Amino acid sequence: MAINPRGADLKQFLAEDPGGPVVMLNLLRFADGGRESYATYSRAVEQTFLPRYGGEVVYAGDGGTPLVAEEGQAWDAVLLVRYPSREAFSAMVADPEYQEFTQHRTQALTEAVLQPTAAR
């Protein structure tokens, strides 16, 4: 199961760019003990990389029991992160310094959804 964006996915992400800011919906399911590893990743992202690329966390929260969902569709955490553009997001994930921290995210998660959204 994919945890981190792959090259082909990023290429399509950029090709479908409607222009303007993008808000990334992050749905996260943690491995046992994964919250600590994710916290290490999250601190680096919030303190270094989001400011560097103009991003900001809009919302971060723990998931609860779903009201409407199929079996297995509950998530441990939900984040909304705004970037000024799809290019800014792609530049961040390509940053060699950022890539050093992705191991913490990869170790922390068993499943993830990273869904770009655009305002209407």
UniProtKB/TrEMBL annotation:
DUF1330 domain: residues covered: 35-110
Matches recorded under InterPro entries: Dimeric_a/b-barrel, DUF1330
Protein's recorded name: DUF1330 domain-containing protein
